[in-house]
């Protein structure tokens, strides 16, 4: 874990008035995407309020054994190198078929030109990477986990 993750979590806790409701250990820290350029860009899109959602496949969670996100979960978003950029709180989680993603969903993800067409092309490629070696192949109706979030720290972000 990059030292900045603990430093950001400690700074966040220092700004909270009800510390008993927060764990002392930092929440999970991770970056978006599967390459440095996109990971760093997406982290900045979260900070400036453009990116308010993400959509990994349900099959990724099943194959990796990771727990599904839940409303209220906190996560630390990092850049590609693991340096903490911001803290997000999950506000909604919806499991839906890939082919039911709408323009509204694409806009919330905030990537590319914000269009559904751009989203579909970029994510179809991403799902091929994400599912590599899992035994799953991307399908037009495969389940995705559409996770909405808000950037809650640092103050003034978004």
Describe the structure.
This protein is α+β, with helices and mostly antiparallel strands. It has a single domain (3-153), classed as Sulfate adenylyltransferase, CATH 3.10.400.10. It is 34% helix and 22% strand. It is built from five helices and five strands, in the order αβαβαββααβ. The chain has helices spanning 3-14, 36-47, 58-64, 103-109, 116-130, and strands at 29-30, 53-54, 74-78, 84-97, 143-153. Strands 1-3-4-5-2 form a five-stranded mixed sheet. α4 packs across α5 (116-130). The longest helix is centred in the C-terminal third of the chain and has 15 residues, at 116-130. It is globular. The two termini are 25 Å apart. The mean pLDDT is 93.
Give the SSE map.
Elements (H helix, E strand, L loop, with lengths): L2 H12 L14 E2 L5 H12 L5 E2 L3 H7 L9 E5 L5 E14 L5 H7 L6 H15 L12 E11 L5
Parallel strand pairs: 1-3
Antiparallel strand pairs: 2-5, 3-4, 4-5
Helix pairs in contact: 4-5
């Amino acid at each position: 874990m990059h030292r900045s993750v603990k430093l950001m979590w400690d700074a966040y806790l220092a700004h909270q008035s009800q510390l008993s409701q927060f764990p002392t250990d930092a929440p999970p820290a991770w970056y978006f995407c599967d390459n440095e350029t996109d990971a760093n860009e997406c982290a900045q899109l979260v900070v400036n309020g453009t990116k308010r959602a993400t959509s990994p496949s349900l099959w990724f969670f099943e194959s990796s054994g990771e727990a599904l996100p839940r409303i209220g979960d906190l996560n630390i978003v990092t850049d590609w190198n693991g340096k903490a950029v911001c803290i997000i709180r999950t506000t909604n989680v919806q499991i839906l078929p890939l082919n039911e993603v709408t323009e509204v969903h694409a806009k919330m993800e905030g990537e590319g030109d914000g269009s559904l067409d751009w989203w579909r092309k970029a994510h179809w490629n991403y799902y091929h990477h994400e599912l590599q070696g899992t035994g799953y192949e991307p399908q037009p109706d495969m389940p995705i986990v559409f996770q909405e979030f808000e950037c809650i720290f640092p103050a003034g972000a978004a």
